[in-house]
Amino acid sequence: MFFYVIAILTICWWWVWRERDRLKITNLTGKYIFITGCDTGFGNLAARTFDKKGFRVFASCLTETGAEALKAASSERLQTLQLDVTDSDNVKKVAERIKAEVGSEGLWGLINNAGIIGPTGPTDWLKIEHFRAPIEVNLIGLINVTLNMLPLVKKAKGRIVNISSIGGRLAVNGGGYFPSKYGLEGFNDSLRRDMIAFGVKVSCIEPGLFNTELSNQTKVIKEREAIWNQLPPATKKQYGEGYLQEDFSLVVQCMEHALTSLHPHTRYPVGRDAKLLWIPLSNMPAAIQDFLSPNPAQPDWNGEKWF
């Protein structure tokens, strides 16, 4: 009898949680959001997706070429900004421009997406320069952008979404990428708690390692889009315009939930490897982690097996 009661309570809890998770904020059309790292990949897709959904998007790109290509693929609402997140003066100028545009309304969403991998390998192969670049972009740059945009987000009682990685829970290789993501996770947690009093909600998205290497994801997106663009109109109609995005961008779906849900998640692990391998492994004793994690010093180790 006891087990039946537990089973019923579990099912009821799951149903309530699911329904609660589906609740959306209304009247978000026309709200301002700022996304970094929009030249390619997740940021580019997110900028185009939220533009189509009626948000007024500020999309920062590192290169002028990336900005021009994104602008050509978007509506007149979307504004591109050239930004190097490691350049403090550049960050301040972009913040001032956005402040002048949003006025008293403030900034509803900040999506910190810009990031690089940098060289990875056994630690004793690397130099300090190999560590510095990912930390400057993925952590220091992200913090600097957040500090400059925070007054605008607080004014709107909006959302902050930080793109981290399962690499922020478990480091499997040397280099600056994993330390930068560990630091990002710590910053995300402290920021989330600090912002509770101001009505700002902070979320962290944690893609897995197998399918979210930045360069590989960009390649996948470009290849899929090229195929999609060559399909007959009838085939596109059968699948719907949203099919392509849903198929390869769980990360962008998580961004949308974090921006529009009445109850955004604290963390969004993305991908089967994240949920079934990396998160469980990150909670195991260090001895088990060391035994199961890839070891480049092993003669039969193959980096492609893990990345």
Automatic annotation (TrEMBL):
<dbReference type="Pfam" id="PF00106">
    <property type="entry name" value="adh_short"/>
</dbReference>
<dbReference type="InterPro" id="IPR002347">
    <property type="entry name" value="SDR_fam"/>
</dbReference>
<dbReference type="InterPro" id="IPR036291">
    <property type="entry name" value="NAD(P)-bd_dom_sf"/>
</dbReference>
<dbReference type="GO" id="GO:0016491">
    <property type="term" value="F:oxidoreductase activity"/>
</dbReference>
<dbReference type="GO" id="GO:0008202">
    <property type="term" value="P:steroid metabolic process"/>
</dbReference>
<comment type="similarity">
    <text>Belongs to the short-chain dehydrogenases/reductases (SDR) family.</text>
</comment>
<keyword id="KW-0560">Oxidoreductase</keyword>
<protein>
    <submittedName>
        <fullName>Dehydrogenase/reductase 9</fullName>
    </submittedName>
</protein>
